Amino acid sequence: MKSIVHAISTAAIAVAPALGLAQIVRVEVHPVQSVTMSDQDFLNGRKDAKPVTLAGQLKIPRAGSERLPAVVLLHGSGGVGGNVVDWENDFNQMGIATFVLDAFTGRGITSTSANQASLGRLAMTYDAYRALEVLEKHPRIDSRRVALIGFSRGGQAALYAASKRFQRMHGPASGLDFAAYVPFYASCGTQFVDDENMSPKPIRMFHGAADNYVPVAPCREYVKRLKAKGADVALTEYPGAHHAFDSRLLKTPVVAEKSQSTRSCQLAERQNGVIVNVKTGQAFTYADPCVELGPTVAYDEKGHAAAQKAVKEFFAATLLAP
Predict the structure, then answer these.
(1) In terms of residue numbers, what domain contains 86?
(2) Is there a domain that residue 209 lies in?
(3) pLDDT tens sequence across 277-286
(4) Is residue 283 part of a domain?
(5) Which site in 104, 179, 212, 213 is 20 to 30 Å from 264, CA atoms measured?
(6) Is 51 left (phi over 0), alpha (psi -120 to 50) or beta?
(7) If 0-12 CB within 10 Å is exposed, 13-18 middle and 19+ buried, where does residue 266 land?
(8) Could you tell me the CA-to-CA distances from 289 to 77, 118, 258, 284, 293 in Å, in that order?
(9) CB atoms within 10 A of CB 280
Protein backbone atom coordinates (compact mmCIF):
# COMPACT_ATOMS: atom_id res chain seq x y z
CA MET A 1 0.00 0.00 0.00
CA LYS A 2 2.75 2.46 0.99
CA SER A 3 4.71 1.88 -2.21
CA ILE A 4 1.62 2.45 -4.33
CA VAL A 5 0.77 5.62 -2.42
CA HIS A 6 4.33 6.92 -2.83
CA ALA A 7 4.30 6.25 -6.55
CA ILE A 8 1.00 7.97 -7.13
CA SER A 9 1.64 10.84 -4.73
CA THR A 10 4.50 12.12 -6.85
CA ALA A 11 2.32 12.47 -9.93
CA ALA A 12 0.96 15.72 -11.34
CA ILE A 13 -1.55 15.99 -14.17
CA ALA A 14 -2.55 18.80 -16.48
CA VAL A 15 -5.99 20.18 -15.77
CA ALA A 16 -8.52 19.23 -18.43
CA PRO A 17 -9.57 22.13 -20.68
CA ALA A 18 -13.14 21.74 -19.40
CA LEU A 19 -12.01 23.05 -16.03
CA GLY A 20 -11.01 26.32 -17.63
CA LEU A 21 -7.82 26.57 -15.61
CA ALA A 22 -4.42 27.22 -17.16
CA GLN A 23 -2.55 25.50 -14.35
CA ILE A 24 -1.63 22.14 -12.88
CA VAL A 25 -3.58 19.99 -10.47
CA ARG A 26 -1.31 17.89 -8.30
CA VAL A 27 -2.83 14.52 -7.40
CA GLU A 28 -1.68 12.68 -4.30
CA VAL A 29 -3.01 9.49 -2.75
CA HIS A 30 -2.60 9.21 1.00
CA PRO A 31 -3.17 6.29 3.38
CA VAL A 32 -5.66 7.06 6.15
CA GLN A 33 -5.21 4.90 9.23
CA SER A 34 -8.61 4.18 10.75
CA VAL A 35 -10.49 1.38 12.50
CA THR A 36 -13.73 -0.47 11.76
CA MET A 37 -16.01 -0.41 14.77
CA SER A 38 -19.67 -0.90 15.58
CA ASP A 39 -21.86 2.08 16.39
CA GLN A 40 -22.07 0.89 19.98
CA ASP A 41 -18.29 0.85 20.31
CA PHE A 42 -18.09 4.30 18.71
CA LEU A 43 -20.69 5.66 21.14
CA ASN A 44 -18.83 4.16 24.08
CA GLY A 45 -15.60 5.83 22.97
CA ARG A 46 -13.68 2.64 22.22
CA LYS A 47 -10.67 2.86 19.93
CA ASP A 48 -9.38 -0.72 20.01
CA ALA A 49 -11.37 -1.94 17.01
CA LYS A 50 -9.88 -3.65 13.95
CA PRO A 51 -7.35 -1.37 12.21
CA VAL A 52 -7.91 -0.57 8.55
CA THR A 53 -5.98 1.45 5.98
CA LEU A 54 -8.20 3.61 3.79
CA ALA A 55 -7.16 5.81 0.89
CA GLY A 56 -7.78 9.48 0.26
CA GLN A 57 -7.17 11.30 -3.01
CA LEU A 58 -5.88 14.82 -2.53
CA LYS A 59 -6.02 17.29 -5.42
CA ILE A 60 -4.05 20.50 -5.04
CA PRO A 61 -5.39 22.94 -7.65
CA ARG A 62 -2.33 25.07 -8.24
CA ALA A 63 1.42 24.96 -8.00
CA GLY A 64 3.34 26.93 -5.43
CA SER A 65 4.11 26.74 -1.76
CA GLU A 66 1.23 28.65 -0.16
CA ARG A 67 -1.17 26.81 2.10
CA LEU A 68 -4.62 26.34 0.58
CA PRO A 69 -8.06 25.67 2.02
CA ALA A 70 -9.44 22.18 1.49
CA VAL A 71 -12.65 20.18 1.52
CA VAL A 72 -12.92 16.55 2.66
CA LEU A 73 -15.61 14.69 0.67
CA LEU A 74 -17.47 11.65 2.08
CA HIS A 75 -19.35 9.42 -0.35
CA GLY A 76 -22.68 7.66 0.11
CA SER A 77 -23.76 4.02 0.35
CA GLY A 78 -22.82 3.30 -3.26
CA GLY A 79 -19.21 4.43 -2.89
CA VAL A 80 -17.46 7.30 -4.67
CA GLY A 81 -19.90 8.34 -7.39
CA GLY A 82 -20.08 10.87 -10.19
CA ASN A 83 -21.58 13.53 -7.95
CA VAL A 84 -18.52 13.43 -5.69
CA VAL A 85 -16.27 13.90 -8.74
CA ASP A 86 -18.42 16.83 -9.94
CA TRP A 87 -18.15 18.58 -6.57
CA GLU A 88 -14.44 17.87 -6.49
CA ASN A 89 -14.03 19.66 -9.83
CA ASP A 90 -16.21 22.56 -8.67
CA PHE A 91 -14.03 23.15 -5.61
CA ASN A 92 -10.75 22.77 -7.52
CA GLN A 93 -11.91 25.43 -9.96
CA MET A 94 -12.37 27.75 -6.99
CA GLY A 95 -8.77 27.17 -5.92
CA ILE A 96 -9.76 24.85 -3.07
CA ALA A 97 -7.93 21.56 -2.55
CA THR A 98 -10.07 18.42 -2.26
CA PHE A 99 -9.61 15.18 -0.33
CA VAL A 100 -11.94 12.39 -1.48
CA LEU A 101 -11.97 9.68 1.16
CA ASP A 102 -12.78 6.12 0.05
CA ALA A 103 -14.24 4.50 3.16
CA PHE A 104 -15.17 1.22 1.44
CA THR A 105 -12.35 -0.29 -0.63
CA GLY A 106 -9.95 -0.76 2.28
CA ARG A 107 -12.73 -2.57 4.14
CA GLY A 108 -13.55 -4.87 1.23
CA ILE A 109 -16.92 -3.16 0.68
CA THR A 110 -18.30 -2.06 -2.68
CA SER A 111 -21.71 -0.86 -1.50
CA THR A 112 -23.82 -0.86 1.66
CA SER A 113 -27.10 0.03 -0.08
CA ALA A 114 -28.63 -3.46 0.16
CA ASN A 115 -26.94 -4.30 3.46
CA GLN A 116 -26.51 -1.22 5.61
CA ALA A 117 -25.45 -3.42 8.54
CA SER A 118 -22.16 -4.16 6.75
CA LEU A 119 -20.67 -0.96 8.19
CA GLY A 120 -21.64 1.05 11.26
CA ARG A 121 -23.35 4.33 10.48
CA LEU A 122 -20.81 6.28 12.55
CA ALA A 123 -17.69 4.62 11.13
CA MET A 124 -17.26 7.33 8.50
CA THR A 125 -17.40 10.04 11.17
CA TYR A 126 -14.35 8.41 12.75
CA ASP A 127 -12.77 8.21 9.28
CA ALA A 128 -13.38 11.93 8.71
CA TYR A 129 -11.43 12.83 11.83
CA ARG A 130 -8.52 10.68 10.65
CA ALA A 131 -8.61 12.40 7.24
CA LEU A 132 -8.41 15.78 8.98
CA GLU A 133 -5.31 14.58 10.82
CA VAL A 134 -3.69 13.69 7.48
CA LEU A 135 -4.40 17.16 6.08
CA GLU A 136 -3.29 18.83 9.31
CA LYS A 137 0.25 17.62 8.59
CA HIS A 138 0.30 18.49 4.89
CA PRO A 139 2.59 21.42 3.96
CA ARG A 140 0.21 22.74 1.28
CA ILE A 141 -2.97 22.69 3.38
CA ASP A 142 -4.13 25.36 5.81
CA SER A 143 -5.57 23.11 8.51
CA ARG A 144 -7.68 25.96 9.92
CA ARG A 145 -9.59 26.11 6.62
CA VAL A 146 -10.65 22.51 6.01
CA ALA A 147 -14.38 21.91 5.51
CA LEU A 148 -16.30 18.62 5.51
CA ILE A 149 -19.00 17.71 2.99
CA GLY A 150 -20.83 14.39 2.74
CA PHE A 151 -23.63 12.75 0.80
CA SER A 152 -26.32 10.42 2.21
CA ARG A 153 -24.42 7.97 4.47
CA GLY A 154 -21.48 10.35 4.15
CA GLY A 155 -23.82 13.26 4.86
CA GLN A 156 -24.86 11.68 8.15
CA ALA A 157 -21.18 11.21 9.00
CA ALA A 158 -20.46 14.85 8.11
CA LEU A 159 -23.36 16.09 10.23
CA TYR A 160 -22.44 14.21 13.39
CA ALA A 161 -18.74 14.94 13.02
CA ALA A 162 -19.79 18.34 14.38
CA SER A 163 -20.87 16.75 17.68
CA LYS A 164 -18.69 18.00 20.53
CA ARG A 165 -19.16 14.69 22.34
CA PHE A 166 -17.88 12.73 19.35
CA GLN A 167 -15.03 15.17 18.86
CA ARG A 168 -13.94 14.67 22.46
CA MET A 169 -14.03 10.90 22.09
CA HIS A 170 -12.64 10.46 18.59
CA GLY A 171 -11.54 13.80 17.11
CA PRO A 172 -7.99 14.80 16.15
CA ALA A 173 -5.52 14.61 19.03
CA SER A 174 -4.73 18.30 18.52
CA GLY A 175 -8.36 19.30 19.08
CA LEU A 176 -8.59 20.68 15.54
CA ASP A 177 -12.14 21.28 14.28
CA PHE A 178 -13.38 21.40 10.72
CA ALA A 179 -14.03 24.94 9.48
CA ALA A 180 -17.54 24.05 8.25
CA TYR A 181 -19.92 21.11 7.85
CA VAL A 182 -22.06 20.52 4.75
CA PRO A 183 -24.33 17.43 4.90
CA PHE A 184 -26.33 16.54 1.78
CA TYR A 185 -29.52 14.47 2.28
CA ALA A 186 -28.26 13.21 5.64
CA SER A 187 -30.22 10.94 7.94
CA CYS A 188 -31.42 12.70 11.10
CA GLY A 189 -33.60 9.81 12.24
CA THR A 190 -31.46 8.78 15.20
CA GLN A 191 -31.40 10.84 18.39
CA PHE A 192 -28.03 10.53 20.09
CA VAL A 193 -27.17 11.46 23.66
CA ASP A 194 -26.10 15.12 23.89
CA ASP A 195 -26.63 15.59 20.13
CA GLU A 196 -27.60 19.25 20.57
CA ASN A 197 -24.11 20.19 21.75
CA MET A 198 -22.43 20.93 18.43
CA SER A 199 -19.34 22.67 17.11
CA PRO A 200 -19.64 26.47 16.84
CA LYS A 201 -18.56 26.16 13.20
CA PRO A 202 -21.31 26.65 10.60
CA ILE A 203 -23.44 23.69 9.50
CA ARG A 204 -25.30 23.97 6.18
CA MET A 205 -27.66 21.12 5.28
CA PHE A 206 -29.22 20.44 1.86
CA HIS A 207 -32.11 18.07 1.22
CA GLY A 208 -34.73 17.15 -1.37
CA ALA A 209 -38.27 17.72 -0.11
CA ALA A 210 -39.48 14.64 -2.04
CA ASP A 211 -36.76 12.34 -0.66
CA ASN A 212 -38.32 8.96 0.25
CA TYR A 213 -34.98 7.29 0.95
CA VAL A 214 -33.87 9.61 3.76
CA PRO A 215 -36.85 11.89 4.49
CA VAL A 216 -36.19 15.48 5.42
CA ALA A 217 -38.80 15.72 8.22
CA PRO A 218 -36.51 14.45 11.03
CA CYS A 219 -33.88 16.98 9.94
CA ARG A 220 -36.39 19.81 10.27
CA GLU A 221 -37.00 18.82 13.87
CA TYR A 222 -33.32 18.34 14.59
CA VAL A 223 -32.44 21.75 13.15
CA LYS A 224 -35.06 23.35 15.39
CA ARG A 225 -33.43 21.72 18.42
CA LEU A 226 -29.97 22.83 17.32
CA LYS A 227 -31.06 26.41 16.70
CA ALA A 228 -32.66 26.52 20.13
CA LYS A 229 -29.21 25.73 21.54
CA GLY A 230 -27.57 28.48 19.51
CA ALA A 231 -25.95 26.37 16.76
CA ASP A 232 -25.03 28.07 13.47
CA VAL A 233 -27.13 25.73 11.35
CA ALA A 234 -29.40 26.07 8.32
CA LEU A 235 -31.43 23.55 6.33
CA THR A 236 -32.26 24.21 2.68
CA GLU A 237 -34.93 22.09 0.97
CA TYR A 238 -35.60 21.76 -2.74
CA PRO A 239 -39.25 21.14 -3.73
CA GLY A 240 -39.80 17.99 -5.77
CA ALA A 241 -36.19 16.87 -5.41
CA HIS A 242 -35.48 13.22 -4.57
CA HIS A 243 -32.52 11.53 -2.92
CA ALA A 244 -29.19 12.08 -4.73
CA PHE A 245 -30.64 15.13 -6.48
CA ASP A 246 -27.09 16.31 -7.32
CA SER A 247 -26.22 13.10 -9.23
CA ARG A 248 -26.32 13.91 -12.94
CA LEU A 249 -26.07 10.24 -13.89
CA LEU A 250 -29.57 9.77 -12.46
CA LYS A 251 -31.44 11.96 -14.96
CA THR A 252 -33.85 9.06 -15.36
CA PRO A 253 -35.31 8.33 -11.90
CA VAL A 254 -34.44 4.91 -10.51
CA VAL A 255 -36.32 2.85 -7.93
CA ALA A 256 -33.55 1.17 -5.96
CA GLU A 257 -35.48 -2.03 -5.32
CA LYS A 258 -32.95 -3.68 -2.99
CA SER A 259 -31.79 -0.59 -1.12
CA GLN A 260 -32.65 -0.47 2.57
CA SER A 261 -34.28 2.64 3.99
CA THR A 262 -34.98 3.50 7.62
CA ARG A 263 -37.45 6.20 6.55
CA SER A 264 -40.16 4.77 8.82
CA CYS A 265 -37.87 4.08 11.78
CA GLN A 266 -37.47 6.26 14.83
CA LEU A 267 -34.18 5.43 16.51
CA ALA A 268 -32.50 6.63 19.68
CA GLU A 269 -29.36 6.00 21.69
CA ARG A 270 -29.94 4.43 25.08
CA GLN A 271 -27.74 3.14 27.91
CA ASN A 272 -24.30 1.78 26.98
CA GLY A 273 -24.49 3.15 23.44
CA VAL A 274 -27.27 0.81 22.29
CA ILE A 275 -29.37 2.14 19.39
CA VAL A 276 -32.99 1.15 19.94
CA ASN A 277 -36.13 1.17 17.84
CA VAL A 278 -38.22 3.67 19.80
CA LYS A 279 -41.46 1.95 18.80
CA THR A 280 -40.42 -1.46 20.16
CA GLY A 281 -37.93 -0.39 22.79
CA GLN A 282 -35.61 -3.14 21.54
CA ALA A 283 -32.14 -2.90 20.03
CA PHE A 284 -32.49 -1.88 16.39
CA THR A 285 -31.49 -4.22 13.55
CA TYR A 286 -32.03 -4.01 9.82
CA ALA A 287 -34.46 -6.92 10.19
CA ASP A 288 -36.90 -4.61 12.01
CA PRO A 289 -40.30 -4.16 10.30
CA CYS A 290 -39.73 -0.41 9.97
CA VAL A 291 -36.92 -1.00 7.46
CA GLU A 292 -38.28 -0.69 3.92
CA LEU A 293 -36.96 -1.25 0.41
CA GLY A 294 -37.32 0.50 -2.91
CA PRO A 295 -36.56 4.22 -2.43
CA THR A 296 -36.26 6.55 -5.41
CA VAL A 297 -33.02 8.21 -6.48
CA ALA A 298 -33.15 10.92 -9.12
CA TYR A 299 -31.34 13.98 -10.41
CA ASP A 300 -33.00 17.37 -10.07
CA GLU A 301 -31.44 20.01 -12.30
CA LYS A 302 -32.92 23.02 -10.52
CA GLY A 303 -32.08 21.68 -7.08
CA HIS A 304 -28.55 20.82 -8.12
CA ALA A 305 -27.93 24.23 -9.66
CA ALA A 306 -29.28 26.04 -6.60
CA ALA A 307 -27.28 23.88 -4.19
CA GLN A 308 -24.14 24.27 -6.29
CA LYS A 309 -24.49 28.06 -6.16
CA ALA A 310 -25.20 28.06 -2.43
CA VAL A 311 -22.29 25.80 -1.52
CA LYS A 312 -19.82 27.73 -3.69
CA GLU A 313 -20.89 31.01 -2.10
CA PHE A 314 -20.68 29.47 1.36
CA PHE A 315 -17.17 28.15 0.81
CA ALA A 316 -16.06 31.41 -0.79
CA ALA A 317 -17.11 33.15 2.42
CA THR A 318 -15.83 30.58 4.93
CA LEU A 319 -12.70 29.22 3.22
CA LEU A 320 -11.51 31.87 0.77
CA ALA A 321 -12.38 35.18 2.40
CA PRO A 322 -9.37 36.96 3.92
Answers:
(1) 2-253+299-320
(2) yes
(3) 999 999 999 9
(4) no
(5) 104
(6) beta
(7) middle
(8) 21, 18, 15, 10, 11
(9) 11
CATH number at residue 21: 3.40.50.1820
Q: How far apart are CA 84 and CA 73, in angstroms?
A: 7
Helix (H, G, I), strand (E, B) or coil at 152: coil
- pLDDT of residue 3 exceeding 90, the answer is no
Domain for residue 197, yes or no? yes
**Separation between Cα atoms, residue 320 and residue 61, nearest integer Å:** 14
3-state secondary structure of 41: helix
Question: For 49-205, where are the alpha helices, taking DSSP H only?
Answer: 82-93, 123-136, 153-160, 164-170
User: How many Cβ atoms sit within 10 Å of the Cβ of residue 202?
Assistant: 19
pLDDT tier at 23, thresholds 50, 70, 90: low
* Domain annotation covers residue 259: no
Q: For residue range 267-314, what is the model confidence (pLDDT) as tens digits? A: 999 999 999 999 999 999 999 999 999 999 999 999 999 999 999 999
Structurally, the chain folds into a number of domains equal to 1
- Residue-wise pLDDT for 134-188, tens only, equals 999 999 999 999 999 999 999 999 999 999 999 999 999 999 999 999 999 999 9
Residues found in the chain: 322
User: b/e for 302-314, b at 16 or more Cβ within 10 A?
Assistant: ebbebbeeebbeb
Helices 153-160/123-136 angle, 10° precision:
70
Q: Residue 203 half-sphere exposure, CB side, CA atoms within 13 Å?
A: 28
Mean pLDDT of 8-27: 49
Task: Tell me the C-alpha distance between 77 and 109, whole Å.
Answer: 10
Closest CA to 214 of 110, 116, 109, 104: 116
